[in-house]
Amino acid sequence: MSKVKQGITAKDVAKLAGVSQSSVSRVYFEGATVSQKTREKVLAAAKELGYRPNEFARSLITNRTKIIGLVMKGVQNPFYPQVLKQFTTAFKKLGYSILFVYTNNDEIQKDDIDTLLNYNVAGVIITDATLSLQANEDLFNNRIPLVLFNRKIVGNKFFSVCCNNLEASKQIAQYLLKTGCSNMIYISGNENTSTSKEREKGFVTVLEENKVKYKKYISDYTYEGGYETIEEIVSQGKIPEAIFVANDIMALGVIDALKKHQISVPDEVKVVGFDNIEMSAWPSYSLTTWEQPINEMVKRTVDYLTAEINEYSGFTKNIEIDGRLIVRNSTYNS
Amino acid sequence: MSKVKQGITAKDVAKLAGVSQSSVSRVYFEGATVSQKTREKVLAAAKELGYRPNEFARSLITNRTKIIGLVMKGVQNPFYPQVLKQFTTAFKKLGYSILFVYTNNDEIQKDDIDTLLNYNVAGVIITDATLSLQANEDLFNNRIPLVLFNRKIVGNKFFSVCCNNLEASKQIAQYLLKTGCSNMIYISGNENTSTSKEREKGFVTVLEENKVKYKKYISDYTYEGGYETIEEIVSQGKIPEAIFVANDIMALGVIDALKKHQISVPDEVKVVGFDNIEMSAWPSYSLTTWEQPINEMVKRTVDYLTAEINEYSGFTKNIEIDGRLIVRNSTYNS
DNA sequence: CTGAAAGCGCTTACAG
DNA sequence: CTGAAAGCGCTTACAG
User: Fold this and answer.
1) How far apart are CA A75 and CA B90, in angstroms?
2) Which residues form the domain of B106?
3) Are residue B224 and residue B174 in the same domain, yes or no?
4) Low pLDDT (below 50) residues in chain B
5) Selected residues 107-126 of chain B with any CB under 8 Å from a CB in chain A
6) Which helix (H) or strand (E) holds B55?
7) CB atoms B118 and A76 under 8 Å
8) Could you read off the pLDDT of B232-275 as tens digits, one per residue?
9) I need a surface site. Which of A152, A285, B86, B219 has the fewest CB within 10 A?
């Protein structure tokens, strides 16, 4: 335990600048008033000494931090690193840092949140998971605003930001109907996720209205899951005319498995994904998909959190943002 | 600014438990001695009140934190999310949290590091970038241990952890020679990176020893970069017998571009990548590549940092860990 | 083993 | 606009 004190404090700067420690503090505290002269003297002294205000002392008094806790599960799905990048960039501009928590749980538990509470984070984002009652209570009691990103919980007890999954999957069904398909399959993600449920619901609703046959296969939002589902479908000899896959990364597995069995996409089977991850545009896949409006989703999340940090209201709502269909070769032979 | 004090402090717990505030502190401070009776009384009271030690007050005194700063550039390359996941998991077990910094710079600047210094992080990892002199000086002056992960700077002034890029690329060259190729291309990543330089050097050294013709194309470690480089090569009519691509994500772009021009892999051109990202195993690519031993690389990084945190020595070394060649269909038609 | 007290480096009323 | 002083919630010598 040899860490030595850096030892340059506001006191040191004050001495060198010939002002009080309070004045030094005021220079670094947004909103405080200092004369131009004092400011200059302080900044000069600070620069000479290499002064840096201690965030911990600061937070101890203000009981506020400039840290946002970001809890993420699916780092394996390229959609989420993109989300991570955007959140980091957006919050950096606002002077916030990201405390990153990786989790394996579909439902965030108390101990995943504990770290964040210990650091008294200003806000929490959970990107692809929900959270346990206890975990939520801990956040609530500490008045820490929370956003569920790309997940929602039934009811209006959380602020969530998703794309409009229901409407999106309806439009996907309508698009596939228009291309003349009449025998379809839905491949789900993890069944307990709101995204998979809603994408199923929208899709199925339209198919049933149009009296079109469909079948559902349960998978898990991974490439391997998509791949193996096709193996199962092929082994049962139940190749449909179109497959709606609950996310892109699974859809890539679906396409690769179909290729392996020399089932032509889109001639024999049309495939539609969801997310518009970078890879869906790669020529090996050229996947028709639904673009999630990440920019807008991130913006809404950031706006809500900064507002709640500024003045806590506990306001909750399920925000849904429209995306758009991106047609590529997996449904349309150009 | 309506955030209300949670207000449950060691003092409150002390009152309820009928002990002094110091005793409460001792229960939560590892290494302090408390009697079993006191401990029980304190824990009971703490549980009743929902007490949680304030990390900021703690860090203010100890001048140490349980935070590791992780600076990452290439979140778009699937190699790095995997690295992020492993670091988060490893440090969580040790009670450390990750402060995540995303950067666009190949060379980390002072202001990227500033946040980390403000939070007095216990250690810093930079995964795919180097750092400016000033940034390094700031870390050094504050005795904050640093690891360059998957990058190194010439000389021995930093602790870096890489795979053995030189040896790996030599073996890749030897492997390609054995398959009978005699006219090769190296597609580089960003030219200022140590990884790209070393992979080039190892590859070229062996080719020159064997008097084999090669050409170098400069690219940028992205899928698009790989794709466009092939467009250039094709337009020049200079298709080689084998291409060594400095990382996998570029190699996928290379394969897709070759496919587009109906140049058969591996029959007409063999392709080798580097990293062994998940996608390289996907059947659409089946890319021969070099497996970076992420587990071991992460372990060595974590071991070094924890040792330096425990007792700072400033010790530096370039650690290089062996990987292995993974042969797939992009070089070998089974 | 335990308590009273000093102090970490700041912010923030309070006077002037 | 500025300074002296109190205090944020802890850890840590120091006595006992």
Assistant:
1) 15
2) 67-163+294-323
3) yes
4) 1-5
5) 114-115, 117-120
6) helix B55-62
7) no
8) 999 999 899 999 999 999 999 999 999 999 999 999 999 999 99
9) B86
